[in-house]
Structures are given as C-alpha cells and as structure tokens.
Design a protein that fits this description.
Blueprint lengths: L1 E2 L4 H15 L16 E2 L5 H4 L29 E15 L2 E10 L2 E5 L6 E23 L3 E33 L5 E33 L6 E29 L5 E14 L2 E17 L2 E19 L2 E11 L5 E11 L14 E15 L9 H4 L1 E15 L2 E15 L8 E13 L7 E13 L11 E2 L2
Antiparallel strand pairs: 1-20, 2-6, 3-4, 3-5, 3-19, 5-6, 6-7, 7-8, 8-9, 9-10, 9-11, 10-13, 11-12, 13-14, 14-15, 15-16, 16-17, 17-18, 18-19
C-alpha cells in the first residue's frame, strides 16, 4: 500500500495553538501607534529581517518568504517557520524620556511543497498592525485650572492568508571541449526559472483606545472617552519572481563549482474594501481616595466606515554569488510605494491625515563555507545586515512619519539535520519620528527576534510516497 505523509493536521494544530497564545499580546510601545491603523508591519520573517525586511526578490531555497506569495515555488520542500520577539523602546521629547519593554509571538508560516515539485501552497498568520501606547500631558485652563489628559491604546490587526505559487524552468546545454578544442560532452542545466503566485488575505482585529481628562479642581467631574474598533477586510496579493543564471564555472571533473545568479521580483497588494465598526462611550468620573469612580454614562454612539485601502506595490532585485571554496554572498535592493493619501481621513483625529508612503531597503548576507566544507559553527552560519527607510503613511502637524531601521541577522543550520532546518536570530535598531525637528517626539528602539525554520521530519521526508506492509 502506498501512502503520503502530510503535515496539514499537525500544522493546523500548531497554528491554532499559537494564535490563542498570540492574541491580545502588546508588541509595541509607540505613541505614534495611536494614529491610523496603528504601527504597520512589513510581514517579514526572522530570516528576512536581517536583510532589511526585503521580500520582492528574496527567493530562498530553505526559508519561507512571508511577503511575496510567488517565492514558495523556489523552496526545496515543505517548510514551517515561527518565532517570538522582544523589544525595548525609548521615547523622548526635549529633555524628557521614558522606556518600555514588550514582546510576544511573531508570525507562523507554512509552505507545503513536494520535493522536486514546481508548485507550493502557503498559509499562515502574521501581524499587519500593532497598537500600544500610554501617554499623558499636563495642561492649564483658565476655568478648570490644571488638568491631566491621558491617552491609552492597545490591540492590533492580524492577517491570515492562504496562497499558491507555481514555477516554470528553462534549460540550456553546457558543452565541454576536449584537448583538441572539439566538443566531446554536454550536460543540460537549469538556466532560468520564473514563478507566479497569489494569496487570499483576511485582515481582522480590534483596537481599543481611551482618552481621559483628570481635572485637579474637585468641583469638576473628570471625563473619559472609550473607543472600541472592529476592523476587517478581504483582499488579494499577487507576486512574481525570476531567477537567471548569469555565469558558471566547472572543474576538470565537469562539476559546477561556482555560479552567479540574478533575481528580480515584485508583488502587489491590491486595493480592498476595509470595514471599520466603531463604538464610542463618554462617561463622567469622580476621583476619590479609593480611586476613580464612574458617576454616569453621558453618551454612546456607533459608527461604521467603509474605507478603500490603496494598492501597495513592491519591486526588488538580488544578486547571489557562489565560489568554488563554498563562499556564498547575496545583496539586493527593494522599493515600495502605497498611495495612502487616497483614503478618507474623516475617521481620524483632528489634524491627522494619510499621506503616500515610500520605502527603500538594502540588504546583504554572507556564508563563509558550505555545509560540506565548513569546519566549525562560524563557517557554516549565515550573517546578514540590512537597512530600511520609510516615509509617509500618517501625516501629523510636525510632518509625515519617518522610520529608519538598521538590522542584522544570524542563521545557524541545525546539527544533525540533512534538510536545512535552522535557528534564525534577527536584531533591529529603529528610529521613528514625525517630521525632522530635533525637539519633537522621537522613538529609539532595539528589537530581537528569535525564529526557527523546520523542514520535513519523518526521516526528513514529508509528502514522499512510501510502501508499508
């Protein structure tokens, strides 16, 4: 009897277990996450983080690309990826500053692909936006004297997806000449490959926000406004990837010992309808010695907004060089744009609007030796460095949001694994502020992400036919 070992049931069980643990965890401490949909995420996995969070042309054989749906066709076999992160963020304005630490699970991703196959299925979960802030300002009013206004928020939006990718390959004949110069042998090699992929995405989640006015004069009641938002949208992302062999070198035994590859890729998250249901509640409070006590509910309202999220497109390229002594290095660049200014800002706070965003990324990696040639842990590891800059998305009175992120990564193949499973570490240093004024609100953060990439177990073979007695 011939059967197929499939990881679907195991994968779904792991996915649901991680979702229940993940939900509700705060993963940002940014006061700027108060605006818009919160702090947007690129969707990059741990292995991509070190290379500037690139994804358009990042066609890796052993790691899941959680940004471009076409990249799954370049994987060698079924792959699972997941991990967690910790972050420390320091927020400063003038000579005042505060610091906070947060953390939690990151995305989970599956790619189901038969070894040697041309197609691959992907599904998983990843954060799309995060909200988490707790800030206050002390103000003075001629009537109420001194009062404290506080802003708090938490929550985030998650993106669940499922997709499929397919690759087509082209070959050419590599000829070998004998001592006399005549062709005496030839071999067919893969010269290029092109993949296309698409995935369906469901974005959902809740954002909770509150604004409290605490008046020092006891003759006045304090006021609190609580807002609960439920978000959801359904859309599609399409991607493509192309890999071309630019150069090769064979040894005297006619074995390939070095090569140069060029990769180009792109993706487009199509515009989609986004529904926002908002519930507002105004209440009066009296501060007593035992704490704040709600006196009465003044007013409540419900609103529904239908938003047109913009098209987001990304293009990138990457070059990979493999040498005869096992050295491998990769470097690439990526450009991304989204026309956020097309969205209505009527549901935002006064003085806040959307603006078009643009992002530029660079990244590189180096592996000193291949697994067969490496003599120690340091030689078989992969080291990454990257940089990403984003400007736009939300426009405040000080100017558009600007983010600059330096990143580094380390990938360590697991000992005893013949399938390419690895432990992935990613580190990032981020600066975020609105406009460029040095005295404005500024964020400086350090983050560390620990992830893992697992390939087939069951004797390193999933989706491979076996015969059982």
């Amino acid at each position: 009897m011939t059967t197929h070992s499939t990881p679907f049931s195991i994968g779904m069980a792991l996915l649901m277990a991680m979702v229940t643990t993940w939900a509700g965890g705060q993963t940002t401490y940014s006061p700027h996450s108060r605006f818009g949909f919160g702090e947007l995420q690129t969707g990059a996995g741990t292995a991509q983080l070190g290379m500037g969070q690139m994804g358009a042309a990042w066609m890796d054989r052993h790691h899941v690309n959680t940004r471009n749906p076409a990249a799954a066709a370049f994987l060698t076999r079924t792959t699972f990826a997941g991990g967690f992160q910790v972050r420390s963020e320091r927020i400063s304005e003038g000579d005042r500053s505060t610091q906070g630490e947060i953390g939690g699970l990151t995305q989970v991703a599956f790619a189901i692909k038969k070894a040697g196959g041309k197609g691959g299925f992907t599904f998983g979960l990843q954060p799309w936006s995060n909200v988490g802030y707790d800030v206050s300002q002390l103000r003075t009013d001629e009537t109420a004297d001194e009062y404290l206004i506080s802003y708090e928020g938490k929550g985030g939006l998650t993106q669940a997806y499922a997709g499929y990718a397919r690759k087509w390959e082209g070959t050419k004949w590599q000829t070998f000449e004998g001592p006399s110069g005549a062709v005496e042998d030839s071999v067919r090699i893969i010269a290029h490959g092109t993949s296309f992929g698409a995935r369906m995405e469901q974005r959902f989640g809740q954002l909770g926000r509150s604004r409290t006015v605490d008046i020092a004069n006891p003759t006045f009641l304090d006021t609190r406004v609580e807002t609960e938002e439920v978000h959801r949208s359904l859309g599609f992302t399409f991607g493509f990837g192309h890999e071309r062999l630019l150069g090769t070198r064979f040894n005297s035994d006619r074995k390939l010992v070095s090569s140069t590859l060029l990769r180009v890729g792109g993706m487009a998250a199509l515009g989609r309808k986004h529904t926002l249901n908002r519930n507002n509640r105004w209440a009066s409070w009296q501060t007593l010695s035992t704490g704040p006590l709600e006196i009465d509910s003044v007013h409540s309202s419900s609103e529904t907004y239908s938003l047109d999220l913009p098209l987001t497109w990304t293009l990138g390229l990457e070059v990979e060089r493999n040498t005869k002594d096992g050295l491998r290095f990769r470097f690439g660049a990526e450009w991304e744009e989204a026309a956020w200014s097309s969205i209505s800002s009527e549901w935002l706070d006064p003085g806040v609007a959307f603006t078009d965003s643009k992002s530029l990324s660079f990244g590189g990696s180096i592996t000193p030796r291949g697994l067969d040639d490496a003599k120690n842990l340091w030689q078989r590891s992969t080291y990454q460095v990257g940089w990403r800059q984003t400007k736009g998305y939300v426009l405040l009175s000080d100017g558009p949001l600007q983010t600059g992120t330096w990143s580094a990564g380390w990938t360590l193949p697991m000992l005893g694994s013949r399938s390419g499973s690895s432990l992935n570490l990613g580190f990032s240093w981020r600066t975020l502020q609105a406009g460029s004024a040095p005295e404005g609100l500024r964020e400086n953060g350090f983050g560390a992400m620990v992830g893992f990439t697992l390939h087939p177990f069951f004797k390193n073979q999933w989706l491979v036919p076996r015969k059982y007695d």
